[in-house]
Design goal:
The protein has strands at 2-14, 17-29, 47-59, 69-85, 89-93, 99-103, 109-129, 135-138, 141-155, 163-167. The protein is an all-beta fold. The strands form two sheets. Strands 1, 2, 3, 4, 7, 8, 9 and 10 form an eight-stranded antiparallel sheet that branches. It has a two-stranded antiparallel ribbon with strand order 5-6. Strand 1 and strand 2 (17-29) form a beta hairpin.
């Protein structure tokens, strides 16, 4: 995952605390965790893009130590994820709106199945910035999944390119 941060405002009048409003962007490859055996999600065909335009970072005074700065942050943003699988199955919605797996129709050669997910994200992070210009962040990013799109493609018999058979 590649991530960047842009400070927008600074306020260091709060008892030595540095309060910043920052904008974070990220992009990378993803794979769903806790997937069942044989689902076949492909990591380098599955991607993620995110932006957190409203994040507040509170950096604590470090007494000019050589180990860097400690920061707590919270924000709100959006996240787009796209997962692809090629295991001979397609994703379908049942009557209750849940997503399940089903076989391709008779006579069709499977190509791939995708699930596109849009989420509103709420990161709550602890960041440690070293004095050498780099650092790390850990913590939960809570996602409210607000939109889902399924797309399945097949290779019709005697065709040279795939065609879409299901888009919901």
């Amino acid at each position: 995952m590649i991530s960047s941060t842009v400070p927008v405002t600074k306020n260091d009048s709060c008892k030595g605390l540095l309060v910043e409003w920052t904008v974070h962007t990220s992009a990378g490859f993803s794979v769903p965790l806790s997937q069942s055996e044989g689902l076949g999600f492909r990591t380098f065909r599955s991607g993620e893009i995110g932006i957190v335009p409203f994040q507040i970072d509170v950096t604590f005074p470090s007494n000019r130590n050589k180990w860097g700065r400690h920061t707590l942050s919270a924000g709100i943003g959006v996240n787009w994820r796209d997962f692809e699988m090629r295991n001979g199955l397609r994703m379908v919605r049942n009557e209750e709106g849940r997503v399940g797996l089903a076989d391709f129709p008779e006579g069709c050669k499977p190509h791939n199945a995708r699930i596109d997910l849009f989420s509103v994200s709420f990161p709550i992070l602890y960041q440690h910035r070293f004095n050498r210009g780099w650092g790390f962040a850990v913590g939960p990013v809570l996602n409210w999944n607000s939109s889902l799109h399924l797309k399945t493609t097949e290779m019709p018999p005697f065709a040279s390119s795939p065609s879409t058979i299901c888009s919901c």
